[in-house]
Amino acid sequence: MTDAATTRPGTRRPDAEVVDLCAELIRIDTTNFGPGVDGPGERAGAEYVAAKLDEVGIDCTLYESEPRRTTLVADFAPEGTEPGAEPLLIHGHLDVVPADAADWTVDPFAGELRDGMVWGRGAVDMKDFDAMVLSVVRDRVRTGRAPRRPLRLIFTADEEAGGVLGADWLVRNHPETVEGCTHAIGEVGGFSLTVRDDLRLYLVQTAEKGMAWLKLIADGTAGHGSMRNDDNAVTELAAAVARIGSHRWPHRITDAQRAFLDAIADAWQVELDPDDVETTLARLGSIARMVGATMSNTANPTMLQAGYKVNVIPGRATAGLDGRIVPGGDEEFFATLSELLGDKVRYEIDVHSSGIETEFAGGLADAMQASLAAEDPHARAVPFLMSGGTDAKAWHRMGVRCFGFAPLRLPPELDFVGMFHGVDERVPTDSLEFGARVLDRFLDLA
Ligand SMILES: [Zn+2]
């Protein structure tokens, strides 16, 4: 195509703006420092998105859970969508994790273009996808192309701190904003994993682990440090923490995990030894870090507290425990934990959310494969279970089936998983443009 053809009014160009939009979003600092620490908030980011949608005639509603903690909701439901089709929820978060400029090669909030990449905090998590959505929707308005279904666009606050002031707050206080939506796409997934020149797997998140942040408590008999004490809280707690920390959780392979492992075995033409899956996973390079933790429940002791003076036995000792639970694994997790804790140590739940899982099947899954293959003939979409959590959990509670699908064709040498929350976070510009074109095709089929 010549330049004249690509810029002619009415010509489809869904990827035209995606690089600029991504760089501009990165330049708006939306750092989320977590609960209790004041930051810039997401308002400036939400206002930027609102302005870009307003420019093409799409109205937005902004919601604030707290001052500057802004979530944006908009409908794109032009004439021409299929009558009666439920809206497709497309979500992206606006906040980013902190970045310490001293560690970076570039200013993390400059949105610099260098070596064919956009650099900066949020380049892959997840202002890349926010930009794709904007670029595609704006192009569709300009060229008068309706998606198959109406779209419900939600750009959230606070995803990086669990969505308490974002997605979670939204569904609690404004459940009508996701009403009617049965399916959603957002993070994390859709990125490529190169097997060989003629085969790339695109990992679509269909499941994510749950979370149990617990406080372990041992109560004993306080007393003088010089006396015998058979009811010492520190001793009891330490023993329980050691049992939990060294426990080998049995593999629990969920359907999504099974499908992923089968796809890996098929792609690399290897037999998967169910007792030694780690060896096979090691072939995956950096992705193995993400996948390795999804084979079983995990429980890591992370904090310890007891005592105030060396010659005083305290009456209580406590520990913090970070548990991650495979979908459907809650009962086993808590039963095993109770056994490991023993009689003298109990737990209180600070945070608990169950894992979620949906089947990689149906019209949306077909649309993902077809739209990827149209832009990359060597694409194969495969489901996977993610070890971390996303806003998907909030939508899931409202009955929405969630897929992580933010398409990116990546160069094989890029340590993509390391980019998430990493130093020198960056994304190739042609990966962004690829993603926008795939997303655009997807909206015709989904
Ligand atoms: Zn994210």
As for the CATH topology of the largest domain, it is Aminopeptidase
CATH architecture heading of the largest domain: 3-Layer(aba) Sandwich
Return the average pLDDT rounded to an integer: 93
Say how many strands there are: 19
- Give the class from helix and strand content and strand pairing: alpha+beta
Tally the helices: 14
- Most strands sheet: 6 strands, mixed
Record the strand order, biggest sheet.
1-2-6-3-7-18
The named CATH superfamily of the largest domain: Zn peptidases
Radius of gyration computed on alpha carbons? 24 Å
N/C terminus separation: 27 Å
What is the CATH C level class of the largest domain, in words?
Answer: Alpha Beta
Strand content: 15-25%
Instruction: Identify the bound ligands.
Output: zinc ion
Pfam families: M20_dimer, Peptidase_M20
Cofactor: Zn(2+)
Protein name: Acetylornithine deacetylase/succinyl-diaminopimelate desuccinylase-like protein
InterPro entries: ArgE/DapE_CS, Bact_exopeptidase_dim_dom, Peptidase_M20, Peptidase_M20_dimer, Peptidase_M20A
Describe this structure in words.
The chain has 446 residues and is an alpha+beta fold. It has two domains: 3-186 and 390-445, Zn peptidases (Aminopeptidase); 211-249 and 297-352, Alpha-Beta Plaits. Helices cover 32% and strands 25% of the residues. It has 14 helices and 19 strands. It has helices at residues 3-7, 18-27, 43-54, 127-143, 167-173, 233-245, 255-268, 277-281, 287-292, 330-341, 363-375, 392-397, 416-419, 429-445, and strands at 60-66, 69-76, 88-93, 113-114, 117-119, 151-156, 183-186, 191-196, 199-208, 210-219, 223-224, 298-306, 312-313, 316-325, 345-353, 356-357, 379-386, 401-404, 426-428. It has a six-stranded mixed sheet. Strand 8 (191-196) and strand 9 (199-208) form a beta hairpin. Helix 4 (127-143) packs across helix 14 (429-445). The chain is globular and about 85 Å long. It starts with a helix and ends with a helix. Residues 206-332 form the Peptidase M20 dimerisation domain. This is Acetylornithine deacetylase/succinyl-diaminopimelate desuccinylase-like protein. Belongs to the peptidase M20A family.
